[in-house]
Design brief:
Blueprint (H helix, E strand, L loop, with lengths): L1 E3 L5 E8 L2 E2 L4 E2 L1 H22 L4 E4 L1 H6 L2 H4 L7 E4 L15 H19 L5 E2 L10 H7 L4 E2 L29 E4 L2 E5 L5 E2 L4 E2 L1 E2 L2 H6 L1 H18 L3 E5 L21 H15 L7 H14 L3 E2 L2 H5 L2 E3 L1
Parallel strand pairs: 2-5, 2-14, 2-15, 5-6, 7-8, 8-11
Antiparallel strand pairs: 1-16, 3-4, 9-10, 9-11, 12-13
Length: about 300
């Protein structure tokens, strides 16, 4: 049985670190460099100001390209987590076999552990795309924590892998051990799922930038729920949301085979994600952190939270 040792109101501030250019709808090494030099320092400065201990999920690609992007979080006591090997959409986890997932996880885990000198036990799938093989692949590669599920999130049709994400509608809202073939259901695997907080829309930097008012309404509900049920809050943001880039894109790259998928997942999503990018995102983030601190949330890493649980 899963028992929690503390009744403290807990909040996880989590970060997906990759080379995605939101400005140009592509993966770019130049974006990775800006993440290193602009996005990460802005996040770390905000977290230091508000006393946040955070979990950073790095792709193996950006870690190998810029090892300092991993090392720079270490002095602050933040956790190094894995965001897969690459953020390429054709190599998303919901498209990979068990053996391919094991290979991707093993390689990215080794890259991160070699750089950080610490064991990596937390994982989040790129674009939150997983399949029935993912829990077993995580177990095989020594992971203990996943954070790829967003319960009752209704905007999945603006992202890829939407059909598989329908399982989120019935996912538990509190941390739970998953099934061996389904991260969105309780079961007897060794993987602890710590969900991304959501209620209709997710508690993320994307929604924060697109509509601060909508996010704050959602936050009020999630905070009330958290206080009543002692349910952790989890916020997700990307350092590439805090960088400025020159727009050089001419045509939106099509990543979906269907025209509807292209309109929703590519064109509409691209235009929405341009709002409040760069320096404009930092005060919005600080407002979130200030609210949470004033509500007396304890900022924890996923790894530390995992250690507050015991089996009985």
């Amino acid at each position: 049985m899963l028992m929690e040792k503390t009744n403290t109101n807990v909040c996880f501030i989590t970060n997906d670190v990759e080379t995605t250019s939101l400005w140009n709808h592509c993966l770019s090494d130049k974006t990775g460099e800006k993440v290193l030099k602009e996005g990460m320092p802005r996040l770390l400065e905000a977290y230091k100001e508000f006393g946040v201990k955070s979990t950073f999920f790095f792709t193996g690609y950006i870690a190998k390209l810029f090892p300092e992007v991993v090392r720079m979080i270490m002095p602050y006591g933040h956790e190094v987590g894995c965001h897969g090997l690459t953020h390429e959409s054709d190599k998303a986890f919901d498209r990979l076999s068990l053996n391919d997932q094991v290979a991707h996880l093993s390689e990215s885990k080794k890259i991160l552990e070699d750089i950080s000198g610490k064991q990596v036990i937390s994982f989040r799938a790129p674009a939150l795309r997983v399949n029935s093989f993912t829990p077993k692949a995580l177990e095989k590669t020594g992971f203990l924590i996943d954070s790829s599920v967003a319960p009752q999130r209704l905007d999945m049709f603006l992202s890829f892998g939407a059909k598989a994400k329908l399982k989120w509608l019935f996912a538990p809202r509190s941390p739970y051990f998953t099934k061996t073939d389904n991260l969105a259901r309780k079961g007897d695997s060794n993987i602890l799922e710590i969900p991304v907080s959501s209620f209709g829309v997710p508690y993320t930097g994307t929604v924060m930038r697109i509509s601060p008012t909508l996010l704050n309404i959602t936050r009020c509900f999630l905070s009330f729920e958290s206080m009543v049920f002692k349910r952790p809050l989890l916020f997700l943001i990307h350092p590439n949301e805090l960088i400025n880039e020159e727009i050089v894109i001419k045509n939106i790259k099509r990543r979906s085979n269907s025209y509807v998928g292209y309109l929703l997942g590519d064109k509409l999503r691209y235009n929405l994600k341009l709002k409040n990018l760069g320096a404009a995102a930092q005060p919005l983030l600080k407002e979130q952190l200030s609210y949470l601190k004033n509500k007396n949330y304890s900022f924890q890493t996923l790894e530390n939270y995992y250690q507050t649980f015991v089996y009985k």
